[in-house]
Amino acid sequence: MKSSHRENLVRRANRFYLRYGSEVGNLCKLVEVKLNQLCIAYTLNNHLPREALEVVTRVKPQTSFIDKLERLGWPEFYYPTDIIRDLIGARVVCWFVDDCYGIEKMIEQSHGFNVDPAETEDFIAKPKPSGYRSIHLMADFTYDSVTRGEGFHELTPRTMACEIQIRTRLQDAFGQLTHDFPYKSSNSEAGARYQEMVARMAESLAEQDRAASQIRELVREAYKHEKRGGFSMDHKSEPGMSPRLPGLDPAD
To answer: Any residues with CB less than 8 A from the CB of 49 and at least 6 apart, and which?
Structure first.
């Protein structure tokens, strides 16, 4: 591998992040909004507190993208999305395992995401050897892009891929704890001990997740009669009146 080729790819990555970084960040916020809407609907339908599902999103940092280039052997690209599909990543963290599968189904049925079933990986049902558990989805989402024409601009619908991971809070804690551990890829004796210890820890956390599932119905029963809703336009309002926001109306 010539150093000039590697340096050229690094410069290309620098230009992309400098030119399009803020736009990709806005698309990441759009994914977060779409997922939060689904989580609100899911918790309402299943009589769960809103906090039972949490959404976190991120744009892959430039340093991580360059690390990925190195692992792939420095392939040619024009946009980073030519070689990676997780430039935008999202995580839905649930209180209970049942809700990991419930929100997965809602995402698959939503109009906001087009999930590719062939790329779905269920590491909850079939954990990795390390004990890592999570559901991974690859989905395309649609957004409006401003396109320049001859003397005017117009909106053009475009799609972009994102990775969505769904896991419980305990699975999320395990993933974050072991993500960058120094013995993670080591073939040393210490590395073997590490793999054995984290696998035991993962199984212990899985047992706690199973125990937590037993209190799910108690939580649902407690929230069964809670009156909660999202923002909506009151079609009976008089012309010129502002939409009513729950909790902010003087009559509340």
So the answer is: 43, 219, 223, 226
